[in-house]
Design goal:
Elements (H helix, E strand, L loop, with lengths): L3 E7 L14 H6 L5 H18 L10 E3 L10 E7 L2 E12 L2 E7 L1
Antiparallel strand pairs: 1-5, 2-3, 3-4, 4-5
Length: 107
């Protein structure tokens, strides 16, 4: 059985003020930080990875790295969960449904 984590968020411009709290410098450099869709992708992917593992004390900036926003709507990406010397790659699927960002992390 594969484990999954899912996050669904309403796309809101408020995220433009919050992204520095959950995105690391590398992700910020790769992202379109003025685009709430992109920022909700990063937030949803990190939330999905967190829900997938339920590990306490995960730092969204230090322990979870998200690949850049996909070039195509149906393109899948990956996340890296960094725990000490262990790096685990996790598949990320995302899509926008109306004004909601749906993100799923699959182990």
């Amino acid at each position: 059985h594969k484990k999954i984590g899912v996050d669904i968020e309403k796309i809101d411009h408020k995220i433009l003020k919050l992204f520095t709290k959950f995105m690391n410098d590398h992700e910020i450099a790769e992202a379109e930080i003025n685009n709430p869709h992109h920022l909700h992708y990063y937030w949803g992917a990190k939330e999905s990875v967190f829900k997938l593992h339920s590990i306490g004390n995960l730092d969204f900036k230090k322990n979870i790295y998200i690949s850049p926003y996909p070039s195509f709507e149906k393109e899948n990406t990956c996340a890296k969960l960094l725990m000490g010397d262990v790096i685990q790659e996790i598949r990320i699927f995302q899509t926008q449904i109306d004004n909601y960002m749906f993100v799923c992390a699959i182990e």
